[in-house]
Automatic annotation (TrEMBL):
Listed name of the protein: Dimethylglycine dehydrogenase
Domain Aminomethyltransferase C-terminal: 662-740
Domain FAD dependent oxidoreductase central: from-to ranges: 408-459
Coiled coil location: none
Family per similarity comment: Belongs to the GcvT family.
Pfam families from the UniProt entry: DAO, FAO_M, GCV_T, GCV_T_C
GO-annotated cellular components: mitochondrion
UniProt domain FAD dependent oxidoreductase: residue ranges: 43-405
UniProt organism field: Sparus aurata
Gene symbol of the encoding locus: DMGDH
Domain GCVT N-terminal: 496-642
């Protein structure tokens, strides 16, 4: 049975305290902390919270020998031990749902596997909608969840009251119900994972703080501790709010920051004690708090608004205080009183409940609230598993994800949104603090498709044309850059491999430099684009002089440019790679040269619509780690019968031999005032059969378009299906792609017609 949070805190605070330790260097094979010291390891995991221990468990269970975990004090120290322990299948994104699913499925079986109780409760959870906008948001989420394995239902007030009978139901319009959600005891979970890790052969040393990390010439690491040094093939940083300090040992400033999070535990509430079954966990989104049963009382934790929440930014500047591990911050009820009062209105029994504990502890945030998971660029065999604001629900799934990736050489599914390399030097401390404050404070606000949030922007990563375009466009944020999403017209409302490893492992003689901050890109497209550029260069840009997909160094208006001729959204076009300091000059020269050709700006939203009309696949949508080129309809670009080998050739030959079960289909939708954007559920005869990958409105054909993965028997032109949008199923039909012919195809057909004439 799970111990109540208050009792858990008392018990942990009564653990024996080590008052002094005497360390001295050890010879190989010496006994340390009651165990044989290992001086070599396949993988060393640094950090003994639930995430780090889960990585050790999964690696060892997967058959890896010589797995070592080093914990500086004791397991669960940091954020794990005081966590509220919520578990949920729900996530607003697509890929992270898989992490949550794997976590809960592991937690359901872990006690039977290890003999160690985990205190898992699964009464389900309900996200409460108290406004019309929130109801629409839930319909939107339902649209994106049917094609996942997780159960999720939109329910009315009566069902909400059945699951949580202590609510003032007059304040509830609807609920998003997820069966199987609940909570777990983080301490017991970590100990069960540790028991499993040891059972499968992993070694766990504590207290064993890492004092330095030194890379070796062959890509290994010397991990130094007061007990001795371990030579590791790879290291995994899973150190929670110590992540920055460990990162700095090798020159990284990981953008993680501790946030003060508080939750309140009540004494026994008679109405709770009288219940015959456990209350579902509720999340009152308008009031921004979660609430669950804690034995015969209640536990609720709010997320304050950004102006009231508190960052522990001193730890970013000065480091975590020595000895901090199982301590808490001083509580501050005034900071959360607004949410306490709203909780009392929604759950009236709280008005009479006695508070017996207010827990205020550090949790780690990244700027976008998602963890940093995977290998890190810049050094070899350094893996990150840090930045977990919700480590308990992520631990099991992330441990499995990283274990599969480390052992098999590639990730088991696409989790690009958690790539640690999505941040660079531009994610400095002011940006990180502003974004963490915004992410925490906006935790439960209504989320809208294509919404932009502006805290910390712009960063120093500005293109050479930013100042010229900023007032003309609604900017989107992409890897630190401000990129035009759409350009204003009069009357508009204005708004808002993975390569180093391949080079090293393949033994290639190649130097890799990251020049992202130094070089900008401009694209010019359309039937007159050649005429515009030809005015600015002596280079022959004709079909014979500059062939499709060729790259040349040329000069435009006297400025050096690397130009690639491409089919830009299906039209004649060029991509121009230019030093940032020269971008504005090249842009202005092109705009002046194109005045008589009717030149104008276009943003990424227009580009997405245009590429869909031409049937162009998009990376991260139609093409990602969860798909393959054959089912994406890219056979034309692959020559499997060529004698030379290439990365992925053997895998594609195997896929082709086994045969496909689904293919990417091109569909039109009959909608009213709504358009698809991707990840919506596709239905046929009342059953879920697939999902869209991207969608937009086609201005050329005046209808909605989308790509969708469908079973082979539903891919034929003329096949009718339905696509769910905001709770309604709209008619859709598979059509021949593309809807609009590309420029090369049009030119070829025109030449063919002339030859016949």
């Amino acid at each position: 049975h799970q111990r109540p949070a208050a009792e858990r805190l008392i018990r942990l605070s009564d653990d024996p305290v080590i008052t002094h330790l005497c360390f001295s260097p050890l010879s190989d094979g010496a006994t340390v902390l009651g165990k044989r010291w290992k001086d070599t390891a396949e993988t060393v995991i640094i950090g003994g919270g639930c995430v780090g221990v889960s990585v050790a468990y999964h690696l060892a269970k997967g058959g890896m020998k010589d797995v070592v975990l080093l914990e500086k004090t004791e397991l669960t120290a940091g954020s794990t031990w005081h966590a509220a322990g919520l578990t949920t299948y729900y996530h607003p994104g697509i890929n992270v749902k898989k992490v949550h699913y794997d976590s809960i499925k592991l937690y359901e079986t872990l006690e039977a596997e290890t003999g160690q109780a985990v205190g898992l409760h699964t009464p389900g959870s309900v996200r409460i909608a108290a406004t019309a906008a929130r109801v629409d948001e839930m319909r939107y989420q339902m649209t994106r969840t049917h094609w996942h394995v997780t159960e999720q239902y939109m329910i009315g007030p009566e069902k909400v009251l059945e699951l949580f009978p202590l609510l003032d139901i007059n304040k509830v319009l609807a609920g998003l119900y997820t069966p199987g959600d609940g909570h777990i005891d983080p301490y017991s979970l970590t100990m069960a994972l540790a028991a499993g890790a040891r059972m499968y052969g992993a070694q766990i040393y504590n207290p064993a703080p890492v004092t330095s990390l030194s890379p070796t010439a062959d890509g290994k690491w010397d991990v130094q501790t007061p007990h001795g040094t371990i030579r590791a093939n790879r290291i995994v940083n899973a150190t929670g709010f110590w992540a920055r300090e460990v990162g700095k040992m090798i020159g990284f400033d990981h953008p993680t920051i501790p946030v003060h999070h508080q939750y309140v535990v009540t004494a026994t509430v008679p109405e709770v004690k009288a219940l015959k079954k456990e209350l579902a966990v509720i999340r009152d989104l308008e009031a921004s708090y979660y609430l669950r049963q804690e034995r015969d009382g209640l536990l609720f934790g709010p997320y304050e608004k950004m102006e009231k929440m508190k960052l522990q930014d001193s730890w970013v500047r000065e480091g975590v205080p020595p000895g901090f591990g199982k301590e808490l911050f001083e509580s501050d009820l005034d900071r959360i009183m607004e949410h306490v009062e709203m909780a009392m209105e929604m759950v009236p029994v709280l008005k009479k409940a006695d508070i017996i504990n207010v827990v205020s502890g550090p949790i780690t945030y990244t700027p976008d609230l998602l963890p940093m998971v995977g290998p890190h660029q810049g050094v070899r065999n350094y893996w990150a598993a840090v930045g977990f604001g919700y480590g308990v629900i992520h631990a099991g799934g992330i441990g499995k994800f990283l274990s599969d990736w480390i052992r098999n050489g590639e990730p088991p599914y696409d989790l690009i949104e958690c790539d640690p390399n999505r941040y660079g030097r531009w994610a400095d401390v002011p940006f990180m603090c502003a974004k963490a404050r915004e992410s925490y404070g906006f935790n439960n606000v209504v989320g809208y498709p294509k919404e932009e949030r502006f805290a910390g922007r712009p960063t120093y990563r500005l293109s050479g044309v930013y100042e010229l375009l900023n007032d003309k466009a609604s900017m989107g944020f992409h890897a630190g850059w401000e990129q035009p999403h759409w350009f204003y017209k009069p009357g508009d409302d204005v708004g808002y491999k993975w390569i180093e490893d391949e080079a090293a492992n393949g033994g290639y003689d190649v130097d890799i430099s990251n020049i992202t901050d130094d070089v900008g890109v401009l694209g010019i497209a359309g039937p007159n684009s050649r005429n515009v550029l030809q005015k600015l260069t002596d280079e022959d840009l004709s079909d014979g002089g500059f062939k499709f997909l060729h790259c040349k160094s040329i000069k435009l208006a006297g400025i050096p440019v690397r130009a690639i001729r491409i089919s830009y959204t299906g039209e004649l076009g060029w991509e121009l790679y230019i030093d940032q300091k020269n971008m504005a000059a090249v842009y202005q020269a092109m705009m002046e040269a194109g005045q008589d050709q009717g030149i104008d700006n276009f943003g990424t939203y227009a580009m997405n619509s245009l590429r869909l009309e031409k049937g162009f696949r998009g990376w991260g949508a139609e093409m990602n780690c969860d798909t393959n080129p054959l089912e994406a309809g890219l056979d034309y670009f692959i020559k499997l019968n060529k004698p030379s080998d290439f990365i992925g050739k053997a895998a594609l030959q195997e896929i082709k031999a086994k045969g496909l079960r689904r293919k990417l289909s091109y569909i039109t939708l009959d909608t009213d005032d709504i358009d698809p954007e991707g990840n919506e559920t596709v239905w046929y005869n009342g059953k879920v059969v697939g999902n869209t990958t991207s969608g937009a409105y086609s201005y050329s054909s005046q209808q909605s378009l989308a790509f969708a993965y469908l079973p082979l028997d539903l891919c034929s032109v003329g096949q009718k299906v339905e696509v769910e949008l905001l709770g309604r199923k709209y008619p859709a039909m598979v059509i021949q792609e593309p809807l609009v012919l590309t420029e090369p195809t049009r030119t070829r057909l025109q030449k063919k017609a002339k030859s016949k004439a």
